[in-house]
Amino acid sequence: MAVDQPRVAAAIRELLIGIGEDPDRDGLVDTPARVAKAYASIFEGMDADPAQILSTTFELGHDELVLVRDIEVWSTCEHHLLPFTGKAHVGYIPSKGRITGLSKLARLVDAYAKRPQVQERLTSQVADALVEHLKPRGAIVVIECEHLCMTMRGVRKPGAKTVTSAVRGVMANPATRAEVMGLIIG
Ligand SMILES: Nc1nc2c(ncn2[C@@H]2O[C@H](COP(=O)(O)OP(=O)(O)OP(=O)(O)O)[C@@H](O)[C@H]2O)c(=O)[nH]1
Ligand SMILES: [Zn+2]
Question: Residue 63 to residues 10, 98, 136: CA-CA distances in angstroms?
Answer without folding.
Answer: 52, 8, 9
